[in-house]
Request: fold
Amino acid sequence: MFRQVIGYRDFHAEDHFNFQFNRWLPFLPEEELHEIAQQITDFESWKHVFSRYAQQAESEQRFSHATYYYRAAEFFMADSDPDKKIAYRKMTSLFDKACQHIPYRREQIPYLNGYLPALTVAAKGEQKDILIVHGGFDSFAEELLPQLIEATEWGFKVIFFEGPGQGFPLQEFNMPMPNNWELPVAAVLDHFNIKACTLLGISLGGYLATRAAAFEPRIKRVIADDVMEDFYDCLANRIGAPKMRIINTLLKLNMKSTLNSLMAKAAKQDVISAWAMNHGLKVSGSKTYFDYLKWAQQMNTRSISHRVTQDYLLLAGREDHMVPLDQFYRQAKSLVNVNSFTGRVFTNKEHAGNHCHIGNATLANNVMFDWISGLLDRDKSITNNCTKPLPKLLEQA
Reply:
């Protein structure tokens, strides 16, 4: 289902299309992805070509391939497209067929007007830790589980959950993503009666996990994979400085209609930004571009980083096309009260320099799992030393 792939391939001339092809490469046949790439010119062709390959794979009972072809087809569909929900439901049902060899359980965590779904996998052998995993702006638990299932070999029970603004809660209950991510995390911890855990947030989840850790003491270790110190800054980096000066001024002056008109015009000139903005409306529950940008401005760690007191692992890609590298250094500098800090910038020479280390995700996994194991050994050593009887000289003193 998920195979180790080393190297970032050139499938398509458009960077964001090419990134998505590389994202699905560990799940899908490389030769077929090259065939598909030659047929992709825009979002419409993306939807139809990937859907065709999904249907073909399903008819051939290649359920694993069909799962991720439907996932890829769904990715760039507009949230208003009825086929999006159909492709999503196909993906989840086929995932269960494809993963019968993986001993995972589906759980429903009551939350607001619905529930948060979770996939749980027990540790192999002695359970050493509980690793809770969530995505960010656009990932599903069904893609994260195969990528991180190896964590169970390290002695970690893994819980993959989707919160508001993600996957099932967004698709089926229309739950928008909140700024206070500690609330859905607390619901997960309460549901499973967890007293201590490691929290891993992926992509935008780097911000979300940091935010949750700032307010939830049951999180003992936190991993931001990747850094997401300022989500609005990522949008600004894509839009460009000249336009952002105008946008920032309009936001500051509360000129809603002017800004909405400007963003609508800009969306016609950049289809990738248009997709991101329109998907952002859905994720954030915003009615207008103005509201979405205001929401995005809240998604930064500047006001809460000083509250993080856990052990903290910060990851970044040197050539990340979504998150400017300077966010890594700003985030590291602001974590002034963490118990310990470890930072790692992956490079293209390691084939892991892009966003979320697409091209060598296994390397990033090994860094994360080794970091957790090292901290567990450290804490065990400290506990054992504290429980040893004092030397007689010290007792007498």
